[in-house]
Amino acid sequence: MGSHDGRPFIPDTTEWQPRYSAAGTLKSGFVKRCKALEQGICLRVESEKTMNIDDYDSRLGVEDILRDELGKILPARYSVKAGVVNDRSGNTAGDIDIVVFNDIWFPSLKAGATSQSRRVHLPIDGVYAVCEVKQTIDFKVLDEAMKKLVMCHRLQRPMTHAQRLVENREVSHCVHGLSNPLYSAIIATNLKAGIDINEMVDRFFLINKTLKRLEVVRAFCVLGHGTVTWAFKDEKNEIRPALFMMEDLLQPIFPAFHRIPQTESPLYALVSDLMLHLYHSVLAPEDIAPSYGPVSPTISVPMSNKTILAPDNEIPSRMEQ
What we know:
Largest sheet: 9 strands, mixed
Distance between the termini: 64 Å
Strand content: 15-25%
Structural class: alpha/beta
Number of helices: 8
Number of strands: 11
């Protein structure tokens, strides 16, 4: 119906409200996406297993699948690849199945022969997270995966302190807390027959109990069974996820078991914990080139004070303006 001058009435904009049904559906959209991806991973892995001679081992196909799917879930600023992780002292943890890397601020130390090569060498300084992938896991395989990840934690990784806001800016030299603890996880697509998930979780905890805080493996995920992360109680006695960055470094931590069927998707629990870590993580790339360069100085300087360029006279006055 039009107004008295023939123009349409102004609509009642208070009625322009989001539909609750749509909001309710989208609210759980990410967990549903992770659940669908987890189911897809398991189906693809089962297909790969038919091509394996020994399905006990982790094969390249399974690792490729998980890298591909994790790369779809994480924001585009994070590179997901396989590679050899090294530190500035020349130590290495060897070939890692999944490396979440910052290739915007950090270069690789040695490129692979092709874009798909696993033999790319990466500085630990630019690594956000490392994951070991196992197709079928038991106690022995868990121990092997834990060993590889603990070796990554023990590489020389200079600490980035909590007051660093972005990769190339630090607001102060406060040394409290850190913003670049290494995240590590074990991802298995299946349990070996006859082994209970609770037994695996107990062993995961007991091995971590022997480690220093910043060497602790951060997550253990078995698709279709559950995911273990870490938590602590804050000053209000509320349970919060442990970030290994600030206050939880000074508090006891305990396992947080996201178990099927209480959790819809172990992959969602893992990715949520990883993304929380990534959200708070800031790395420091400023000395990456000299740190992985020659050990001895390679420059020569003039012996005479005559071989200099003096500053412009007007520069001090400009800086005072």
